[in-house]
Amino acid sequence: MAASNKSVGLQITLAIFAMLAVIGWVAFYMQFRELADNQARFDKANADKATADNGARKLLDDIEALKASAGYNQPEVGADQQGAANTVLGAIQADLGKVNAAHGPLPTVNLAAGLEFLSQRVTDLASEREQLQTQLEGRNTELASLRGQYQKQVDQHQVARTSAETDLANLRDTTKEQLDARQQQIEDLRRSLNEVQVEFDEATATWTAERKKYVSDQEQLVLQVDDLRKKLKEATRVSFERPDGLVRWIDNTAGLVWLNLGSQDRLRLRTTFSVYRKAHHGVARGAEDIKGQIEVTRIIDNHTAEARILDDDIYDPISKGDPVYTPLWSPGRTETFAIVGLVDLDQDGVLDRDQFHDIVSDAGARLNHEVLDDGSRIRYEGFPDKFLNWEEGSPTLDSDTKYLILADIPDPALAIREEDVIIRKAISEHLSAMQSEARLKGIEEVRLSDFLAWIGYKPQRRLYVPGLVDRPFNLRAGAASVGTNEVVGDRSAAGAVSGVYGRSKKLKPQSSAGQTSELFRGGSSGN
What we know:
This protein is of the alpha+beta class. It has a domain at 330-475. Helix content is 49%, strand content 14%. It contains seven helices and 14 strands. It has helices spanning 2-70, 88-103, 111-236, 353-362, 418-441, 448-454, 499-502; strands at residues 245-251, 256-259, 272-276, 290-301, 304-312, 323-325, 329-330, 333-334, 336-340, 366-371, 377-382, 386-389, 401-406, 444-447. Helix 2 crosses helix 3. Residues 468-497, 500-508 and 519-527 have low confidence and may be disordered.
């Protein structure tokens, strides 16, 4: 039994060894077979490598040949360097860019297209060159023809020039003799001119001295004439003005008068008149004959107008038959005036130029020249709104100007501010110029105060309150308060004239009733 077990184990062992041997031989065979395949593949790879090396070498040779043929010897082709300047492709692109910029645009930006474009360009230029050459030959032919024609003309001109030079030489000889004679005449005339110049200078000096003396004498005579005219006017007070109308009726109680002027005389409302005494010495010659002022308030008919009394003399009241006059108004014509200086009608320190304009325009008169408060002179084309700045050469005072009115002329030496000095000097200069114009045109000068008296102007302000110059100066009543804490109302005077002054001086004065007015019972409570 034991021997049998050993034989079985041996068999199994042998079987295992046999199997291992078979497996080993199979494995060996497989390794040998793979080694043979790898060797075959290796041999094939070496052969392919040799072939590739040959191809690469040939390709490099071709690239070098292409670079040499194209003329680009950069070491790198530059396919992977995006047009670097030191590569073949970069250099080609740069050159194509230059060609495209100079001769483009290229149809396709590559070397072949560029060469084709340049080839065509060369062909076109060659054709143009042949055409230009043909044109040049034609132009050369024309030039040769013209040169022949010009040469003929030059020859003709040369002959003419030679002839002219000959004539010029002959003329020069003849002219030299004439010039010598003329030069002698010029020398003689120059000596005569020098002698005349000396005489002229002496005469000019004499004339200048005489003119200076004449101007000085003229200025002195003008001053004397002005002084004599002023003295004559003050001594004689001659006036050529006539009264404008008469007082027909008067109501002293109502303060009204009626004039013999009306709509047919073209009388205007608000026209003011000065009222003269019947025994006057001439209107518009002074204020001594003026007894009152009136203002037209109503036009009644063709030759009747109503006026209110602005002011009169209680000892010599306005009466029937008194003449009235104003220089601002004349029947059927427009009076014209000029004024220079600062206009202060009521002497309250506030300038009243606009009010003066209203007075003039209300009466239907106008101003033609005026010197304003800023020292500028204006010329009216349509008083009072349309005017032009006056300049040298502009129209001056004309003969239609009735008066040159002299308002307040401020003294430049009394000005404090520099701008005031300039303004006052300008006013003074315009005053001198306008006085000269008035003197030449025979225009009379009047002071503003006299003019206001003649036109019947009466200031409406009565009481001056310092610091309140813009407040109306109303005449206040003198009634006393009747109690403490009394609310003071309006105490303006009623303006009615006492009956004592409204009666004729020839009537017997009324006797007093002996009763005191309640206005003078100061402090009374009404008992």
